[in-house]
Specification:
Shape: globular
Number of strands: 16
CATH architecture of the largest domain: 3-Layer(aba) Sandwich
CATH class of the largest domain: Alpha Beta
Radius of gyration: 21 Å
Distance between the termini: 41 Å
CATH superfamily of the largest domain: Nucleotide-binding domain of ferredoxin-NADP reductase (FNR) module
Strand content: 25-35%
Number of helices: 9
Helix content: 10-25%
Structural class: alpha/beta
Order of helices and strands: EEEEEHEHEHEHEHHEHEEEHEHEE
Strand order of the largest sheet: 4-3-6-1-2-5
Length: 355
C-alpha cells in the first residue's frame, strides 16, 4: 500500500504502531479498521468506552494527525476498532477509506479522551443513558451503548440522525442489539430525507420520557448545538451533558504567528496522584515540558492541543494557551487547561492533574 506498510519500526516517544487485522466497509463512505494489539502493547492500549485513537500519516510531504473514536467496547470486543467516514476534502479520512489495507502498519497514539464511561457509570441504573449520534458521531456513542448493555440493566435511548437510510453506519448491528435488549434499549432513527434536520421541537419530544438522564452527544456542530441548547433549556444539568467535538488541526507550520513565550513564573506546583511536586519551569517551556523535564509522568498524547489527554486544572495563577481545539468556554471558565499548549503566567502557578 505504501512505504509505511513494509515493517513495524520501533515506537518513537508516545507514538506506537499497530497492524490492521481487518477492514469492514460499513457504508459507501465509511469503513471500520480493526487492529490486533500485541501482548507487549496491551497495557498501553487499555481504554474506556467512548475514547479515541490518534493517527499520524504522511501525505503530500506533511505529517498529519487525526483522531478517530473507537467504535469497539473494551468489554465486548476482542479487537480495537475505529470507524472513519469520508469527509469532503478530508485528506486523512479519504486516505483511510481508499488506501489502507489488511496488513498495513499505522502510527497510533495511545487511547485518550474524556467522553467516556467507566464500568460503574455504565451500570448505574439511577439515571437513563441518553445518546445522540449524528452521522459518523455514532462511533463513540456506539462504544458507550455496547458498554451500557453489557454492564447492567440501565435504560438506554439512542437517537441517531443521518442524511438517509443508506448513510446509517452499524445499521444491522443496531437492529440486532435492539432485538436482543428490547426491554432496555430504544433506538430512534432521524433521517434528513424524511423528517428534515433534527430541531429543538423534535429533541423535546424525543426526551420527554427520558428526563433527568446522563446525556452524550456527538455529531456535526449544528446537530450538537441544537441538542445541547435544548437540553439546557429544559433544565437538564450542564454537568450531565457530555459533548464530543473533533476538529482537524492546522497543517504543521501553519498555526499563525509564534506565541510569546516569555514567562515570569518562578515556581510551578504540580499535584499528580495526590502528591504535590515543586518545579522551576524552564524559559519558554510549556507546562507539559516543565513536568517532563522534572521527571513527572503526567498524561499526554498528541502534544498538538486537540486530543485533551493532558487536561489539567489551574488551581492558582494562570496559564496562557498557544492554541485550543478541545476545551469549551465552560471548561476554560472552570480552570481547565492543556498542559501541552499552556505556559505559566505569574510568579507562582499550581496545577492539578485528574486521577
Amino acid at each position: 500500500m505504501n512505504a509505511q506498510a513494509a515493517v513495524a519500526p520501533a515506537p518513537v516517544t508516545s507514538m506506537l504502531r499497530l497492524q490492521v487485522s481487518a477492514v469492514i466497509d460499513e457504508t459507501a463512505d465509511a469503513r471500520s479498521l480493526l487492529f490486533e494489539v500485541p501482548e507487549a502493547l496491551r497495557e498501553r492500549f487499555i481504554y474506556q468506552p467512548g475514547q479515541f485513537l490518534g493517527f499520524r500519516v504522511t501525505l503530500g510531504g506533511k505529517r498529519l494527525t487525526r483522531c478517530y473514536s473507537m467504535s469497539s467496547s473494551p468489554w465486548t470486543d476482542t479487537h480495537l476498532k475505529v470507524t472513519v467516514k469520508r469527509v469532503e476534502g478530508g485528506r486523512v479520512s479519504n486516505w483511510m477509506n481508499q488506501q489502507v489495507q489488511v496488513g498495513d502498519w499505522l502510527e497510533v497514539l495511545p487511547p485518550a479522551g474524556h467522553f467516556c464511561l467507566d464500568q460503574q457509570q455504565a451500570a448505574d441504573s439511577r439515571r437513563p443513558l441518553v445518546l445522540f449520534g449524528g452521522g459518523s458521531g455514532i462511533t463513540p456513542v456506539f462504544s458507550l451503548l455496547k458498554a451500557a448493555l453489557h454492564s447492567g440493566e440501565r435504560p438506554v435511548l439512542l437517537v441517531y440522525a443521518n442524511r438517509d437510510e443508506a448513510s446509517v453506519i452499524f445499521r444491522d448491528e443496531l437492529r440486532q442489539l435492539a432485538r436482543a435488549h428490547a426491554e432496555q434499549l430504544q433506538v430512534v432513527h432521524v433521517l434528513d430525507s424524511v423528517q428534515g434536520f433534527l430541531d429543538a421541537t423534535q429533541v423535546r419530544q424525543l426526551v420527554r420520557h427520558w428526563r433527568d438522564g446522563e446525556y452524550f452527544i456527538c455529531g456535526p456542530g449544528p446537530f450538537m448545538d441544537t441538542v445541547e441548547s435544548t437540553l439546557l433549556a429544559l433544565g437538564e444539568a450542564r454537568e450531565r451533558i457530555h459533548v464530543e467535538r473533533f476538529v482537524s488541526p492546522p497543517d504543521p507550520h501553519s498555526e499563525g504567528p509564534p506565541v510569546d513565550v516569555e514567562t515570569d513564573c518562578e515556581l510551578l506546583l504540580v499535584e499528580l496522584d495526590g502528591v504535590t511536586h515543586e518545579i522551576v519551569p524552564g524559559p519558554g517551556q510549556t507546562l507539559l515540558q516543565s513536568c517532563r523535564a522534572a521527571g513527572l509522568e503526567v498524561p499526554f498524547s498528541c502534544e498538538e492541543g486537540f486530543c485533551g489527554a493532558c487536561m489539567c486544572t489551574v488551581e492558582e495563577g494562570q496559564a496562557k494557551l498557544a492554541r485550543n481545539d478541545v476545551l469549551s468556554a465552560a471548561e476554560l471558565e472552570a480552570g481547565w487547561t492543556l498542559a501541552c499548549q499552556g505556559r505559566p503566567e505569574g510568579s507562582r502557578v499550581r496545577l492539578k492533574f485528574p486521577g
